[in-house]
Amino acid sequence: MNTQRSVRLSKYLAKHLRHEPERIGITLDAQGWVSVAELMAAAARHGFPFTREELAAVVAGSDKQRYALDGDRIRANQGHSVPVDLDLPPAVPPAHLFHGTVARSVAAIREEGLRPMSRHAVHLSPDRETATRVGARRGKPVVLTVDAGAMHRAGHVFRVSANGVWLTSRVPAPFLRFPG
């Protein structure tokens, strides 16, 4: 499968496994899973057929490990805007986590902290490099440092997704360090 096809399929999966399953007539279970057969049939009905081999290649080849295949079912690992419970247990975070954003968002974040916006949780990266890549998707990246250890001691709950993204309900501004 060529790179363009792979990217297109990955974006298609993100749209329908994270945000708009109803658009192609699939139903995610409470934990976000759907059968591969149901997904493939729905995609074919809506003009985007793909093979099980293409699907497996996109799941295995994703550098961010966005999706999980478990037998005959698939789900997105995080980033949902539709109601799902990924059934991730609470986890003790490292002392610091990172969040990539862009300069135009910094003023609001200084005032309000990090909020999940349309997603279920705030996404945090385990290292500065990953946060830089995340922030760069929308422009010149700004990387914020999150005092995750202090947040955890203050009672904030963290979870870690299958692909290493740390999730929490919000990050209050006092737990953030801004560059410069």
Identify the strand order in the major beta sheet. 1-3-2
Low-confidence stretches: none
What's the gyration radius in Å? 17 Å
Briefly note the structural class of the backbone.
Answer: alpha+beta
Note the gap between the termini.
44 Å
How many helices in DSSP terms?
6
Structure description:
With 180 residues, the chain is an alpha+beta fold. It folds into two domains: 3-76, Arc Repressor Mutant, subunit A (Orthogonal Bundle); 97-177, Alpha-Beta Barrel (ADP-ribosylation fold), CATH 3.20.170. It is 34% helix and 18% strand. The protein has six helices and nine strands. It has helices at 3-19, 36-45, 52-61, 103-112, 128-136, 148-153, and strands at residues 34-35, 67-70, 73-76, 97-102, 122-124, 141-146, 159-160, 166-168, 176-177. The chain has a three-stranded antiparallel beta sheet. It has a three-stranded antiparallel beta sheet with strand order 4-6-9. It has a three-stranded antiparallel beta sheet with strand order 5-8-7, with no helix packed on it. Helix 1 (3-19) packs across helix 3. It is elongated, with a radius of gyration of 17 Å. InterPro entries: Ptrans_KptA/Tpt1, RNA_2'-PTrans_C, RNA_2'-PTrans_KptA, RNA_2'-PTrans_N. Belongs to the KptA/TPT1 family. It is an enzyme of class 2 (transferase).
